[in-house]
DUF218 domain-containing protein (Echinicola pacifica), 200 residues
Amino acid sequence: MSMQVAKVWEEGLQQVDEVQVNGRPIVVLGGMAESLPELDRPVFFKAGDRLMGAMKLMKASGNSTLVLSGGSLYGPAIASESRHIKAFLTNLGLFPERIVTEPQSTNTAQNARYCSDIFQQNNWAKDIILVSSGYHLHRARMCFEKQGFRVETFATDPLESRSPKPLIYAFIPSMQSLQTWETLLKEWLGLLYYRLKGEI
């Protein structure tokens, strides 16, 4: 049941060649990695697929700017997520001159507000490809549109595997199903909270 609900709620996955990037900035939202003081690289979560999707879009475009949006949830003692990921990509030689970081945000509304500041400072058109998890894109898109962006979304990391399974699996309780429901409920509550606050 959780898979069916997730499929209805999540924005669908796309092939990169279905997206007309046309040099537009590619904005990737944080929450995909953790910075640990003892490591010289970020530790990626399942949502690290956001970065994989963005890399494919960057390669397809050839001249887009990659905007990494995400700060540190643990204060200034820990490097911001976006800066740590930029350092990681730069060390690999990937698009070093085409990456911009937004290192302050700790939630989706701040992602949109602080990215808006960057676009205004650079006099960039607010026409973007927004990359995030499929379940998160409804709220993310509305936050960015609230800040005056024209948004085309690119979904990543579906909540549950889309590989075909025997019908019997639909009736077997699983930890993944519980995690899916938890994620969806948090997202729906976040959507309601943002609407009440006027963030969307």
Observations:
- The first strand starts at residue 26 and ends at 29.
- The chain is about 40% helix and 15% strand.
